[in-house]
Specification:
Length: about 150
């Protein structure tokens, strides 16, 4: 769980930096979407390797499709947050915008964790169960995958 949190903090910092840079030249919604897309692929790859200790191509497509679903959820939450912010505080500052987006991303991060965990713990393509089933803890996953 520690690696997931570290990856989340690093990806959130990257997202904030990208959002702030893109926001200088793009509307909020476009800056948000672009920053999310860039960080989502890195997030999925890092979590796959570091949090769940999955190496190689086995399940790669399924894991990245799951990451794209998580991206869609994050984009929905952050876009809705921006739309609500337009109604509640139309003359807000950039820091308020970023704070709201970070909060929405935090909610999306929890969803991402559970989605990735389900996707990675699924039965392998060969039909054999993984060594650590869906109810295993992360510490069990780290001991059994290598």
């Amino acid at each position: 769980m520690t690696s997931f949190a570290v990856i989340g903090v690093v990806c959130t910092a990257a997202y904030v930096g990208l959002y702030a840079a893109f926001r200088n030249v793009l509307p909020a919604a476009a800056a948000n979407a672009l920053a999310l897309v860039v960080t989502a692929v890195c997030n999925t790859a890092a979590n796959r390797r570091l949090t769940f200790e999955v190496r190689g191509r086995d399940g790669l497509a399924r894991h990245h499709v799951t990451g794209l679903v998580a991206l869609a959820v994050a984009l929905t939450l952050t876009s809705a947050s921006l739309a609500l912010l337009d109604v509640v505080a139309p003359h807000r500052g950039r820091l308020t915008e970023i704070a709201v987006l970070v909060a929405a991303n935090a909610a999306a991060t929890l969803f991402r964790f559970f989605l990735l965990r389900l996707a990675i713990d699924r039965v392998q393509e060969s039909g054999r169960p993984t060594e650590a089933g869906p109810s295993a803890t992360l510490s069990t996953l780290k001991r059994t995958r290598g």
